[in-house]
Amino acid sequence: MWRIDSPWARPGPSLGISSLRGSEEIPRTARVRWLRAPLFLRIAAILLICGAMTRPRIGAQRVRNIGNGIAIQILIDRSGSMDSDFREGSKWTTRLEAAKRFAEAFVKQRGSDLVGVTAFSQYPRTVSPLTFDHEAVVRLISRIDVAGRDEDGSPIGDALALAAARLKSADLGRATRVIILFTDGGINGGRRRIADTATLVATWGIRVHVIHFAGALAPQKFLLTMKNGVTMFEPNAETQLQELSIASGGTYRDAGNIDSLTHAISAIDALEKTELPNVRTAGGRELFPYLITAAFGLLVGEILLSNLWLRRIP
Q1: The whole model's pTM is what?
Q2: Between 3.40.50.720, 3.40.190.10, 3.40.50.410, 3.30.390.30, what CATH number should domain 63-278 receive?
Q3: How far apart are alpha carbons 115 and 130 in whole angstroms?
Q4: Range with the lowest mean pLDDT among 127-141, 197-211, 265-279?
Q5: Cross-strand pairs, 180
């Protein structure tokens, strides 16, 4: 008959003793008193490693610089239709890859502007918060990929509303706020219509510049079914995006034109730049190597104690 013991069950005695009477009088040696030391050393090492991962510094100072710039939120469509072929000059690529290259080239030229990135498919998500670290923004843009089938969708109205809210809620005073939208115009899902969002961004004083990766010619009107069950006819995506840019004071460009990015950059550069505070941490000594070294030393001490002075015989 087989017996299966639970892994959490306490092990049985290794050595049978008829009686423990009189064992209380046996003095506790130093080894017995230090028997739990390896466990404490391991716990301390883990805590030091966790602390090192936070990259603490001593002597660091917060430096506040004031520069003239614009707050820009880049909005990139990553829906399944953005995986379609797109001709960029003499080369063929996908709409998303072309949009990412456009966005990366745009960010590299922004100087002292504050830049954030939002990507959207079925739901919009923040890729990068508003930051002056343009190199980090470029790296994050390069990692954006096409949405899978389980998250496919293109709620442009919802994504625009989120990007506008990011700019509106930022403590930027009277800074000029701009949204750059890279999309193929496919509208699928979402609770907000583009027309509603156009009114919102115009009220908040946010300009929307559209780079449209148009595919085949869209019909003059298409059927849109709202979630509340009311079916309505809306203008096609190209018309809605053009009306959005006009209502917000922005521009509309066709990505098929190689000069689209140049025109968009020129329009943004012409905007009034305002003072943007840039607070960063400078100087100080990083404690990461010291904490990691201490953790390594504790782990070595645990191994030596467990296998030498405090070695157990099972």
Answers
A1: 0.65
A2: 3.40.50.410
A3: 5
A4: 265-279
A5: 74, 209
